[in-house]
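Why does residue order matter? Because the sequence determines the fold. Keep that principle in mind as you read this record.
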Amino acid sequence: MQPGVYQTTRKDGTPSYRSSITYRNKHISLGSFSSETEAHHAYLEAASLLSGSGSLEDFLLLFTAGNESARFLKFPQLSFEKGISLLNFRDNRLYIANPIYLRKTYFSYYLSPSEELKFDIDDLFYYTRHKILRRKGHLFINDYGMQVTLLSRYGLKSYSVRHRDYEFANGDPSDLRYSNIIVINPFYGVTAFLHKGRTRYRTKIHINGNYTIGTYASAEKAAIAYNKAVDLAKKAGIQKNYPENYIDGFSAKEYAEIYTKLKISAKYTAYLETLSKTPMPPASD
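Structure:
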């Protein structure tokens, strides 16, 4: 076998050739290939990256659209993601299997040569163990068997809408550092808006259309109003599995007092009356 190559057998009995390289006492797998020649080329390409002086930017340029011929001449076998991992190991002495490159105050996660996501160093441990996936244009992570959106780490729900529920301080949606994420509406069913120069919070629930529950002075009260609206819907026999808001900062007694005193739209409770024979609690406009 040529350097960096060893032969294995697939489940169907056909031969396969795995490539690997050792650098700084770290044994790194480069992938599985159909021929010994391809596997050896991957080894040579990895060795060239690890021993060379070419920058990350040079490597990215080879993989951008229009440079297919140049890329194939230098890296016909090595994958883009593996190349990023090797360059990071060479330059920063930390091997990470995912396509991550460490910067001075943050790290970059490369989805492709032209798609760079920026994260705070505090998130490095998480993203070294969780791969970012894409489906129908949406980015997510498999976490404990569940598909989790990237924005959920900032307290944003999967249905959150940019400009309404959150914003990017510098206008760059690829910059996912905490200082760049402005959370506007952290609760289900709550939307913030300006009224006479003040921020107010409108609560809505969807039952065969949107029903406005009320307008409130704080996001927390609006979130509790949403919870109350959900409870009333369940009492009326509506089986939909509504999410409920978790609100920090209130004792059980304080939460109960706010919950009891909050005014709920009479139009909403009247609608629920039509769905249930159980009388709804009195409500105020």
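The CA atoms of residues 156 and 186 lie 6 Å apart.
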